[in-house]
Amino acid sequence: MTSLEGVRVLVTGATGFIGSHLAERLVAEGAEVTLAVEPGASKANIASILDEVRVHELDLREGQMVRRLVRECQPSKVYHLAAVGVTEPGIDPLLAVQVNVMGTLNFLEALKETEFNCFVNTGTCYEYGHNDPPMREDQMVDPINAYAASKSAAWLFCNMYHRTRGYPIVTVRPFTVYGPRQSARALIPQTIISALRGEDFAMTGGEQTRDFTYVDDVVEGYIRASLSEKAIGQTINLGAGEERPIKDVVLKVLELMDHPVKPLIGALPYRPRDIRRLYSDSSKARELLGWQPQVGLEAGLRKTIGWYTEQFKAQSSKFKWI
Question: Which domains are assigned to the chain?
Answer without folding.
Answer: 8-175+215-238 (3.40.50.720), 178-211+242-279+295-312 (3.90.25.10)
